[in-house]
Q: What sequence folds into this?
């Protein structure tokens, strides 16, 4: 069975002081849940770069993992303002979110660039959480599967099966991000199944069956249980609700309940 991965993408929120407060609150709300249950759910927080070190120091004793929200495709050198995979690894990150739709939209990230970043992350032992998703216009035009296919093929291009097995894919319909509009559990699951089948065709069914595919887009404490109980939804990539300790803890709990069933 695939282990659920519940991840908070804090986006450009929380300075170092606010991070300390939120992590403390998260520890208080999540740790009792984890201790009272032996159901395996991976829990991840992805604060901004400037908060990674303090967050890492604060989560040492608790089963929370750390991830970044972006990184460079380059190894090192004259790339002013960039942060490398090696730097993230050295401060204790295990994951990095890549190709989020906000980066695709505002920073013109392409599938090719996201593919290069993903390979670079894997080279340094970071798990890339690679985001894909269609816009509202694309969904309404009936081309969701074409868009997802191009994105998945592009971001996983020239990876070995072993490499693909180490990736996480996050399906985030752009129209559901920060809008309060969630894909219905059935709508989301359909796309997740499509992605899994595609990875099965491109690589192998063994890889596809193991692949963690998260859903992201207005997931919250109210809708998490239903989304997470779908056959092919292996976790959530949560924006707004991950900034509220109680809401995030409730989503974690929902993941645990589903995993127990
Ligand atoms: P919201 O949960 O705020 O819709 O954001 C989703 C997201 O973009 C996570 O990466």
A:
């Amino acid at each position: 069975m695939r282990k659920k991965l519940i991840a908070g993408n804090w986006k450009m929120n929380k300075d170092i002081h606010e991070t300390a407060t939120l992590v403390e609150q998260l520890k208080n709300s999540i740790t009792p849940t984890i201790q009272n249950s032996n159901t395996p759910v991976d829990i991840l927080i992805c604060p901004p770069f400037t908060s990674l070190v303090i967050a890492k120091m604060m989560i040492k004793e608790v089963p929370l993992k750390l991830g970044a929200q972006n990184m460079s495709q380059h190894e090192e050198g004259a790339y002013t303002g960039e942060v490398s995979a090696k730097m993230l690894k050295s401060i204790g990150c295990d994951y990095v979110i890549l190709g989020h739709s906000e980066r695709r939209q505002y920073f013109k990230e392409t599938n090719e660039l996201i593919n290069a970043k993903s390979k670079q992350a894997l080279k340094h032992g970071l798990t890339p959480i690679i985001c894909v998703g269609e816009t509202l216009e694309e969904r309404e035009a009936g081309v969701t599967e074409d868009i997802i296919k191009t994105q998945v093929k592009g971001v996983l291009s020239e990876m070995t099966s072993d490499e693909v097995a180490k990736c996480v894919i996050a399906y985030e319909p752009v129209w559901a991000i920060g809008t309060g509009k969630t894909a219905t559990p059935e709508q989301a699951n359909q796309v997740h199944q499509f992605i899994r089948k595609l990875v099965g065709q491109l690589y192998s069914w063994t890889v596809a069956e193991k692949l963690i595919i998260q859903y992201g887009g207005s997931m919250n404490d109210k809708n998490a249980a239903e989304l997470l109980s779908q056959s092919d939804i292996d976790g959530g990539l949560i924006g707004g609700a991950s900034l509220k300790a109680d809401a995030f803890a409730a989503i974690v709990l929902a993941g645990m309940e589903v995993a127990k069933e």
